Amino acid sequence: MQHWPWYLLIDECFVDLAGVGGDLTQRGHRMREQLLQWVGIPSGVGIGPTKTLAKLANHIAKTTAHQPGRYPAQLAQVCNLSALSPAALQAVLAATRVSEIWGVGRRLGAQLETCGIHNALDLAQLDPTTVRRRWSVVLERTVRELQGVPCIALEGGGSGKQQIAVTRSFGQPVTALPDLEEAVTVFASRAAEKLRRQHGAAAQVMTYIRTSPFRQTPQYSRASMMPLQRPSSETGAIVRAALAGLRTAYRPGFSYAKAGVFLLDLQTGAVQQGELGFDDRELPNPHGARLSDVLDRLNQRYGQDTVFVASAGLGGLQRVWSMKQEHRSPRYTTCWEELPVARA
Fold first, then answer.
1. Are residues 133 and 177 in the same domain?
2. In this structure, how many other beta carbons lie within 10 angstroms of the beta carbon of residue 316?
3. Which has the closest alpha carbon to 137: 126, 128, 127?
4. What CATH number should be reported for the domain holding residue 292?
5. Are 124 and 45 members of one domain?
6. What range does the domain containing 76 cover?
């Protein structure tokens, strides 16, 4: 007999329980109680032999408390489908609308209902090969997962972003190019930091500026794309490209309300592209990567903007383009200085 791994779903986080012994239902209750005590957030825990069934169990755990009578009361908060008898599991599947199944959705659910497939049990009893031929391989995987056959792997980690953007609206209209250069420098530096955190490199940098559509002033909006000779994550290279794009897009006489920097054509930093026929002036800076790493470590240790590119200006929070933050909520969870103080 083949033993499949069990999966645990706490809200939207999957955990592989392969090799974990003991009463999984009791473990789920203890984990939920600890989350509620430590974080103060209620959660639903769903356990099943596949990711789709774990997702369904989580849905049942949350639905049972809000819709009494639909599912057995003992499945509220923590639902372990592996602990149910075959008859009880079928009853639970029959009580679940087909559109509520992970990966089905409202539109496909409506199509299935016109074919007489109204609940999860109806879907689970279909022949997977027929489902693939009539609908899609994605729905076939869902059917097999409902039947207890794992088809969706547990990812080891999230994939990197396909693009990185840093955009901000200005606290007041900006007209001068030097002020815009300060803002774009800061945005490009932030984007480069994000790119290095995912160990990537960008091949193109796009800068855009626009006026406010809500003001009765002349309107202007433009974006400019600057390719990098070699994909890079170095702050210096990305800032230079972003500023070149800004100078191309900028037109005097307009009151700009927003700017942004996009890093595009992202790839892994392990890939290095070379060309034939370049001269020494086109060689990459051998110290650029090390300088960017030092920049990140200093800012992580001593606070953001401890060290920054000179073209970002020296105005600090008094920069013309800085966002208005008078009504910002206190940062209770990330800033010691803004923690609430209880007085007797």
1. no
2. 9
3. 128
4. 3.30.1490.100
5. yes
6. 7-146
> Are residues 168 and 112 located together in one domain of the fold?
no
Model confidence at 145, in pLDDT bands (50, 70, 90)?
A: very high
Is residue 47 located within the same domain as residue 192?
Answer: no
Query: Do residues 98 and 134 lie in contact, with contact meaning Cβ atoms separated by under 8 Å?
Result: no
| R_g (Cα) of the chain, nearest Å | 27
The reply to whether 27 and 110 lie within a common domain is: yes
User: 182: Cβ–Cβ under 8 A, 6 or more apart, which residues?
Assistant: 311, 312, 313, 315, 319, 321
pLDDT (tens digit, 9 = 90+) per residue, 60-98? Answer: 988 888 888 889 988 888 999 988 899 999 999 999 999
pLDDT at 315 over 70: no
Residue with tokens 């060309």: 275
Contacts of 22 (CB under 8 A, 6+ apart): none
The SS3 of residue 230 is strand
Token pair, residue 105, equals 């959705």
Q: Please give the structure tokens belonging to residue 120.
A: 């999860």
Q: Is the pTM of this model over 0.90?
A: no
Contact 39/97 with Cβ under 8 angstroms? no
192-226: per-residue pLDDT in tens? Answer: 999 998 889 999 999 999 999 888 889 999 999 99
Domain total of the chain: 2
Lowest mean pLDDT among 41-50, 260-269, 322-331: 322-331
Let me know if residue 94 belongs to a domain. yes
307 and 168 share one domain: yes
Cα–Cα distance, 97 to 120 (Å, whole number): 6
Q: How many Å apart are CA 31 and CA 10, to the nearest integer?
A: 9
Of 283 and 125, the structure prediction assigns the larger pLDDT to: 125
> Of 193, 181, 195, 197, whose CA–CA distance to 231 is shortest?
195
SS3 165: strand
Looking at the structure, tell me whether residues 70 and 171 fall in a common domain. Answer: no
Phi-psi region of 277 (alpha: psi -120 to 50; beta: other; left: phi over 0): left
Q: Band of the pLDDT at 1, cuts 50, 70, 90?
A: very low
- Provide the pLDDT confidence category of residue 3 given band limits of 50, 70 and 90: very low
Do 132 and 171 share a domain, yes or no?
A: no
Contact of 145 with 246, CB cutoff 8 Å: no
